[in-house]
Amino acid sequence: MKLTVYGTEYRRAAAGRRAKALALALLMLFVCALGPSCAAERPAERELFLMDTYMKLRAYGGKAEEGLDEACALMSRLDSLLSVTNENSEIFALNAGSGQPTPVSEETFELLSIAARVSAKLGDSFEITLRPVSKVWGFTDGPMRVPSDEELASLLPLVDDDKLTLDPDVGAVTLPAGMQIDLGALAKGYAADKAADLLKESGTEAALLDLGSSTILAFGSKPDGTKWKIAVQDPKNPGVYAGTLGISSGSVSTSGGYERYFEQDGRVYWHILDPLTGRPADSGLLSVTVLSGSAAEGDALSTAIFVMGVDKALELRRDGGGFEFIAIAADRIYATPGAGAVFTPMGEYAEVPLEIVN
Ligand code: AMP
Ligand code: MG
Question: Which of 152, 183, 204, 232 would be 199's cystine partner, CB 3.0–4.6 Å?
Answer without folding.
Answer: 204
